[in-house]
Structures are given as structure tokens and as C-alpha cells.
Amino acid sequence: MSGPDRLVRSPDGTSIAVFESGTPRPGALPLLLVHGTTADHRTFRVVGPILGRRRRLFAIDRRGRGDSGDGPAYSIEREFEDVAAVAEAVAAESGGTVDVLGHSYGGRCVLGGALPTRSFRRIVCYEGAPAPADRPYQPDDLADRLRARLDRGDPEGALELFMREVVGMDDAAIARFRADPVWPLRVAASHSIPRELDAERSAAASLEALGSVSVPVLQVLGSASLPAFRAATEALDARLAHGAIARIEGAAHAAHHTHPEAFVAAIEAFLDAR
Q: Is 57 in contact with 23 (CB distance < 8 Å)?
């Protein structure tokens, strides 16, 4: 494992690790990749080499995991600032704008990151829309139950609980996940889950706030994902000035692992459109 290619300092002083790859072709803008809850830049290890055939990729470790730092007080607004800071640094070097892809909670970070900067050209948000008030992703007591497991020294149990109740993994999916080499890395980041569950309920992360994004947004939705993801995706699309939805048949919340070719095809069709 190699270290980050650069560190970008966010406005609050936190260092955000950036990992670069890919070969740009004429006309293809840089693509910034932002992962979801408990993940890091390696969640794009399957689709990164495919996307990198045509584009220069900049995958980050979000604050609080991997090679990035963390601030003393967490809020999703700090995540917005992190994404915007990296986008502005890349855009300044390339002399233009950047495209941005976010998965799950990372999708919310990307949407919010577009608000304070003019460095974004297009956004791909994979099942990262804020949930409508009447169709939340999480039960009201989930963050407290996760904290209780973490306090008991059971980070694996906390991660499994989150994956079952929010992502919708069944016994077979959990067994496959536990056998994956990334499982220990996800367990190590499980302490970050409750703060993100709290933050996604904030006004800054609401449909009203993130629905004001003005740049074109493609939302990717798996046909086998939980109904809550579809409800959130459609609710955000109804608010966006320039929104579109691409559905991937048979995929759930991990199409970037299970359906990489279809996932990349949807992204490239959107990013290549003029």
C-alpha cells in the first residue's frame, strides 16, 4: 500500500489525503471520487482502473479515516468544505472545472461540496440523496444502539448492525462482507458511523438544502436497493434544476463492486454529454 499523492488542507486545517491515478484523454476532465460511510479511497478499487482509462482520478480519504486527519468538532459542513477544497486544488492545476462522483454518504458530501465552489462541472451521486422526512434511512434509535455496541467494545457488531438496517444486507451478504479483506478496515472506521447518522439529519444535509445544487447531477440507483434509496433519489431529482437518474438492473448499494461495467457506462455517458 502506498501513501497519498498529496495532502490538501481544508479550511479548518484538516489534511485530506488524495490518491491519484488514471490517464487523461483530450476533453476528459479530472474526476474526484468520494467514498461512503466506513470506507476509504479503496472502495473504488474495482471501477477506478476502468474509469482511469480515460480520466485522471483523484480519490480521497474523507476526514477521520485512512491517511486523512480529523478536526476537533465534526459536522457535515466540514465534509462539504473538504470536498470543495480538493476540487478547487485540482481545478486550479487543470485550468478548468472537475467532475465529482460520490457514493452513499459521500454523495451527500459531494452535493454539499458543490454549494460553496464554482469548481464543479457535473456530479454523479450514487444513492447519496438525503432521505425524505417520512422515509428515513435509519430508525430513530439506531445511532444510540450503535454507540452502545461501540461502548461495549463490539465494533464488528456495530458495523454489521449498520449494514443490515441501513444498507439492507442479509445473512449471505454479511458473510461475504466479513470474508472480504476490507472488513477489518471497515471495522476500524465503525466509530465514525454514529456521527454521520447524526449529521445526515441536519438542516445542512436536508433535501431542501442539497436540492438547491445548480450543476447537472446524475443519480445512480440500483434496482435491488432498499425502497428508501429509491424514495430519496426521486425526491432529490424532483428538486434539482438539472437532474437525471440512471438505474442499474440487479444492483443494490454496491454496484461499483458488483456491476462495474454498467456503473462505469452510466457515468461516462453522463460525463461525456455536452
A: no
